[in-house]
Amino acid sequence: MTLHAATRSIGSSSILPFVPRISPSIAKIALTAAFLPMALSHGHHGGENIPEGSTVSMDPVDTTLWIHIFLQTFTFGILFPLGMVLGIIKSRWHVPLQVGSTALALLGYALGHLHKGREFNEKNVHAKAATPLFFLLVAQIVLGVYLKLHLERGIHGRIRPFIRILHSVNGKAFPLLSWVQMLFGGITLLGFCQGDHLGQCAAHFIMGSAFIAYGVLLTIVLLVGQLWLRRTGRSQEFFDSAVIAAWGCVNTFTEHRWGTEWVKNDWQHTAMGIIWWSAGLAGVWLSKGRDGTPKRNFIPGFVIFITGWAMSAHPQELMISAMTHQAFGYTLMAVGVTRIIEISFVLKDKAAVSEDGTQINSFQYVPVFLLYAAGFLFMGATEEQMEFVAGSGMDAVAYILIMYSLAFLVFLVVMMFINVYDRAVNPQSKIALNGHARSGDETRVHDATEFELDGLMTDDEDDDNAASRKLLKSEGGEQNGFASPSAVGRQNERFA
Fold first, then answer.
1. What's the pLDDT score for residue 42?
2. Quick one: which of 464, 327, 338, 450 has its CA closest to 398?
3. Which segments constitute the Protein YTP1-like C-terminal domain (predicted)?
């Protein structure tokens, strides 16, 4: 289907007859050919104004670079992930959105080479990561064009399943790769994470991103993953505890450089790794009952709580750094406490509030969101960032509130993406005006009731009962298309 035909089938404005008939594949190739020479013809700045020992110049950020930042953040942080979701649900909007996103991405790529003002070292991590990300984008375009051609005869029939898998995996990896590239962009813009700061900077960004990723996964499981979790025959704590144990093993042997003297932070971080893998193993054991059924337990929540307590006690040189780490620790402690409360008292050791997993208690959102907040607070607590904020005149309270605001925005975007998926794969769960959901069983009961009522009515009764039937339908429309039990009862009494 051409782009013109796909868009016209959706039902758009009257200008569509004037849109040229061009396929998505040709559009992608044309855009790539148009923007790539312009981008490649402008290399990075020479860096003659960069002070010795630094990776950025002291020049201000110009408008072109700001446009590049916001455009690429919007494209790779919103449009491409949304296009991925639309591809998963087989939406006809998938191809048009990805074509437009590719055009914006190439435009942003070109603007990143055309800006003036602040100069950057040519070997910065953001520039290095841009090249493989760009080629992955080109590969995704090529794979998409191949699949769009629907070549299924001969050798194409044998390789098409593998092409589909590659296209799917590459597309699902893009949100993660985009997140990493956006972090690299921020690091490069400010010239952070260089020299001796590299180790602690990497630890903060990796661990902070891990907390956010954990929050994203819990959001997915909470909103649409309960039935999948039931099919696995495992409880949520089994997977959480297994990851905690694996991560603890890594921390145990990597936080201290073996063969050197032990310092205070080495002891703390290594001991934290030990408690993670030991508690994780205990959590895996407790995730199964005597009869082999999945069981909930407190272990992951407790591990998160004790981790937050340890992090809040880390000694810091700057007051703003101490307050930020303390806020991070308290937030993580709140994650652990609220997680234990959710499992033990809200769910009472059940997998979900309802059997079908569609009902959600409002308290269940609390530990999930706090994971996002903890991740942003920890990523924003590196040594260089703390020095930068302290020199800007901003106080710790304002900085912490900004981190919480970012957490709310990412939390909102993730829920919006999940909602798009949920509404597509669960079309029967239509939300009524009064906030209640109408299930498939309720729909069938309503249809059967209407059929039975119509069969009981005679031609002589039609005139007398026309008003009653109109009222029945009206009340059903007010409750998302089906009558209330009281209305059905009144009609049955009259017909009896």
1. 41
2. 327
3. 178-421
- Tokens standing for 127? 């520039």
DSSP codes joined into one string, 467-481: HHHHHHHHHHHHTTT
User: What's the CA gap between 223 and 396, in Å, rounded?
Assistant: 34
How many residues are present in the chain? 496
User: What's the gap between Cα 15 and its chain centre?
Assistant: 35
Strand, helix or coil for residue 294: strand
Count CB neighbours of 149 within 10 A: 12
Look-up of token digits 């409002």: 362
Q: CA 404, CA 370: separation in Å to the nearest integer? A: 9
Which amino acid does the sequence have at 212?
I
pLDDT tens, residue by residue, 125-142:
999 999 899 899 999 989
**394 Cβ contact list (under 8 Å, min separation 6):** none
User: Token pair of 76, please?
Assistant: 């790779």
Token reading at 261: 């003297």
Over 60: is that where the pLDDT of 17 sits? no
- Do 248 and 270 form a contact (C-beta atoms < 8 A)? no
Reduced DSSP (H G I as helix, E B as strand, rest coil) percent helix, strand, coil of the chain, to 5 = 75, 0, 25
Q: What's the one-letter identity of residue 73?
A: T
Rounded CA separation 318/328 (Å): 15
The b/e string for 380-402 (b: 16+ C-beta within 10 A; e otherwise) is bbbbbbbbebbeeeeebeebbee
CA angle 210, 211, 212 (to 5 degrees): 90
| Euclidean distance between CA atoms 337 and 432, whole angstroms | 35
Closest CA to 340 of 377, 374, 370: 370
165, 77 in Cβ contact below 8 A? no
Rounded to a whole number, what is the distance in angstroms from the first to the last CA of the chain? 56
Partners of 430 in beta bridges = 438
Q: Is residue 407 helix, strand or coil?
A: helix
**H-only helix segments in 115-254:** 125-148, 155-190, 198-224, 226-232, 236-254
The tokens for 90 are: 């087989």
CB 381 within 8 Å of CB 204? yes
pTM of structure: 0.77
The b/e string for 175-205 (b: 16+ C-beta within 10 A; e otherwise) is bebbbebbbbbbbbbebbbbeeeeeebebbb
- 305 forms bridges with which residues in the sheet? none
Bridge partners of 294, per DSSP, are: 288
Q: What is the mean pLDDT of residues 458-487?
A: 45
* Amino acid letter for position 84: M
